[in-house]
Design brief:
- The structure is a single chain.
- It is built from 15 helices and eight strands.
- The chain has 303 residues and is of the alpha/beta class.
- The chain has one domain: 3-Layer(aba) Sandwich (Rossmann fold).
- An eight-stranded mixed β-sheet has the order 1-2-4-3-5-6-7-8, with helices on both faces.
- It is globular.
- The chain starts with 7 loop residues before the first strand and ends with a helix.
């Protein structure tokens, strides 16, 4: 399968940042925004995108701080409140990107960090989001509030990356390729066999840079601070995801082993909710591209 065959790429203005994105598929079909997770880029969607190209007009960006998108906030002056890397800021980026591409209403699917951006996008821009798919995440606030020994051990990076700069930046920067490969091979993935060589090369090119490492740390610092404030405020006002929601999780990963994803997401959804455990670890779109594409297609095109 050719690497993103038939897709175009470019930099797009989105408010205060520039986002790298690939666009492709059928422009006459419904728009679908695909959001990646940590420590990856848009490249994680390559296999799924090829399988969905006939049914959707696809937009596949790098989140701010990742890949070839802008990395706001220099490492020399870390933010006090981490707002530049909040999921609210990232969601606003995506709303601006889609409007700039002519998509007023669209569906969104997000994996890992992209799923958390998709959650906030569905809250802050509810009138824009038709349907949302959340892949291998539970609500951030619940995961922090329910922290216990197993979670802290499996997802140690949630507590390592939030340490004050430049501690995690310097430690990862000592051997970023080793850290990246260790991370991509974990969380139930059982090695790197699920990753295409082109994708792995892209992850290494983009991750193993000081500004990218810092931006990723800021992403997690935001999740442990300002994002929790936003989530608590949404819950206090009864704000929930209004559109239909699909939840997918890997039965061999941390979410499947430690949580009841549908129970947790039911409390945050006002619309129809459906979900499925998949025979995968954490990196579901790369481990199970055929099944991921099929489930997304069935959900997003259902009448």
């Amino acid at each position: 399968m050719s690497w993103f065959n038939g897709f175009e790429s470019g930099l797009y203005a989105a408010g205060e940042v520039e986002l790298f994105a690939r666009t492709g598929g059928d422009p006459a079909k419904p728009p679908l925004l695909l959001l990646h997770g940590y420590p990856q880029t848009h490249a994680m969607w390559q296999r799924v995108a090829q399988r969905l190209a006939a049914d959707f007009s696809l937009v596949i960006p790098d989140l701010r701080g990742y890949g070839d998108s802008s990395k706001p906030g220099p490492a020399s002056t870390p933010e006090a409140d981490h707002a530049l890397h909040s999921k609210r800021a990232m969601a606003a980026d995506m709303a601006a990107l889609m409007r700039g591409l002519g998509h007023e209403r669209f569906a969104v699917a997000g994996h890992d960090r992209g799923g958390r951006v998709a959650h906030r996008l569905a809250l802050d821009h509810a009138e824009r989001v038709e349907r949302v798919a959340l892949i291998d995440i539970a609500p951030t606030l619940d995961m922090y509030d329910m922290t216990e020994m197993r979670f802290a051990s499996f997802y140690y990076h949630w507590f390592f990356l939030i340490q004050p700069a430049p501690l995690p930046e310097r430690m990862i920067g000592g051997d970023p390729s080793f850290y990246l490969r260790w991370t991509l091979g974990g969380w139930g993935a059982k090695g790197l066999g699920h990753i295409e060589p082109e994708a792995l090369a892209e992850y290494e090119r983009c991750f193993c840079r000081a500004d990218a490492i810092h931006a990723a740390c800021e992403d997690y610092r935001a999740s442990a601070s300002i994002d929790l404030e936003h989530d608590r405020a949404s819950r206090a006002t009864g704000e929930k995801i209004a559109c239909d929601t699909l939840v997918l999780w890997g039965e061999h990963g941390v979410i499947g082993r430690l949580y009841a994803p549908l129970v947790l997401w039911r409390a945050q959804c006002a619309g129809k909710l459906e979900g499925k455990a998949m025979d995968a670890g954490h990196f579901i779109p790369e481990e199970q591209p055929d099944e991921t594409a099929r489930r997304l297609r069935d959900f997003l095109l259902a009448r």
